[in-house]
Amino acid sequence: MSARIPLHKRLLVRLLITSGLIAVCSVAATAWLAVATTTQALREEQGQALADDMEVLAELSGYAATHPDWTGATATVRRLSAKTGRRIALTTPDRRTIADSAPRGTSLPPTAAATVDPLHTDTYSERGAQISGTDPRVVGPYRLTRTERAKIDVIVRKRQLCFAQNGIQTTVVHTPSGRPVLTEPDSTVQPSYVPEACGDGLLNSPTRTEEKALGALHAGARACLTRKGLSGDTPLSLGGYDLRSPSLSPVYGKPSAKQTREAQTCVDEARHAQLDPYVAPVAELFLGTGDTPAVLFDMSPANKAKVVGTAGLVLAVTVIVTALVATRLVRPLRALTAAAQQPPELHTRVPVTTRDETGILAAAFNDLAERRERLETQRRAMVSDIAHELRSPLTNIRGWLEVTRDGLVDPDPALLGSLHEEALVLQRVIDDLQDLADADAGTLRLHREPVRCDELLQQVAAAHRIAADAAGVGLRTDVDGLPWLDADPVRMRQVLGNLVSNAVRHTPAGGTVTLSAHPDGDDVVLEVSDTGSGIAPDDLPHVFDRFWRAEKSRSRRTGGSGLGLPIVRHLVAAHGGTVAADSEPGSGSVFSLRLPGGPTP
Fold first, then answer.
1. Quick check: is 323 in a domain?
2. Where are the strands (E) in 236-360, listed by range?
3. Closest Cα partner for 492 from 589, 577, 397, 584?
4. 257: exposed, middle or buried (Cβ count in 10 Å: 0-12, 13-18, 19+)
5. Domain that holds residue 22
6. What is the pLDDT of residues 81-131, one digit of tens each?
7. What pTM was computed for the model?
8. What CATH number is attached to the domain comprising 591?
9. Domain count, the chain
10. Which is nearest to 453 in space by CA: 430, 475, 483?
11. I need a surface site. Which of 86, 167, 500, 555 has the fewest CB within 10 A?
């Protein structure tokens, strides 16, 4: 049994997610402890504010703003170190080195000069300047495509020409996202006066990329406002556009002070979350010569308590989550174990409550129990049928022998012929059972040789001509071309003989049984068709079952032993072929054998 398991339902995925959650909790707790204890120790031991070199910090912040990680930062750090003549080192917040211009193993300065975080550039420089907010070089999903840039460049050139025609000289400046802006010459300030002829608004219309990014920003900000309990009519604006509508129509009306504060806070949070995947992780910047020994922290009792408490909390969460997941996973397995330990004759099933691997296992177990119950029923029926098939001829033989022994009947030729006929019936049943046993055990032997299909059909027809004539049934052959088989001729005569015998038995007087053969590609198709009573659609799937008869009331002599068609199926399969039955009640039946063709000698 096979089934496609949803990814989130797979046992392996669930275990991985559980392990990942535990790992994330552990890493987050460790990072928090490292930041908290390091920051506190630095403040206690150094007692000074963070400092940085503006030029280095600006360039490294720009690198972080335009790269998702620090993979290639080493070259930039070494170039800046050569330019400034100072040692520059970048580390993670827990002091793992990212890039360092000093030789490996050189101790770090006692304190970090600054924190490089392009989303929170609120650090103070050594020169007394301040950078606040988000680095403008962080564009993330707002970066225009090449097609969009080309389209807007055409618009900005037309706008610049319009300004020039109205006596205003401008310069085109491209922002980090690729959007062009008209500014005053040698300045970053946009013209304060826009001629009416040039104010069509096309230049400032958001592109598809910007609309998509603004839409995502809107969703994040709206979710933030919802968490804060504000209603959906709170206006959100970014750059003068109302984020409540997909068309980004301008905001009209003055919001309340609280709405403005909450909206700006939510927009900032949503924007940081939106841009975070596009920037490098937060890093600590160390500036100096490397001569100052590394700081050794003497953990205070309070910090020790934090470490112990956090470790205990992580351990407790791990145990609880693992116990919950394990219990849920083991419960269906216990049900399967209990069902498997029940007595075999009960054929116990288990409920299927999930769609993961355990659910499929439970369904497979139920299917196995059902098939086992069906096979047990078939076995009992087969034993009963075999006993009946053997009992009837043995009873007849025994009865006639007893009356002959008692002198009640003379052993004349007619009686001996009758006993011989019963012995032949008994032998035929035993031979059929032996063939089926050999087929089941895989020991059925075939003696292959090239076989002409026309000769094979003629031999089978000749062997059953007398029985067909006695029943008033016509028997004919029809061969298309000269197909050959690589087969055991004795077994193939047995296969076709069983089919012809069945066809003659179920065809009324005046009917016809036809044996035909024709090539079909590399295969040869042999067919035995009749004009008899046919087989009901409900009975057709069972015609190859052992001891099956369409009419249960038929006797052994009129209905056969019920083993002929199962033997046909096994012998054809041993030759690498297939057998199929097709019938229409009242119009007859067709049994088709498809076998691999053999080479022509």
1. no
2. 237-238, 241-242, 283-288
3. 577
4. exposed
5. 7-123+283-312
6. 888 778 888 999 888 888 888 888 888 888 888 888 888 875 434 333 334
7. 0.39
8. 3.30.565.10
9. 4
10. 483
11. 167
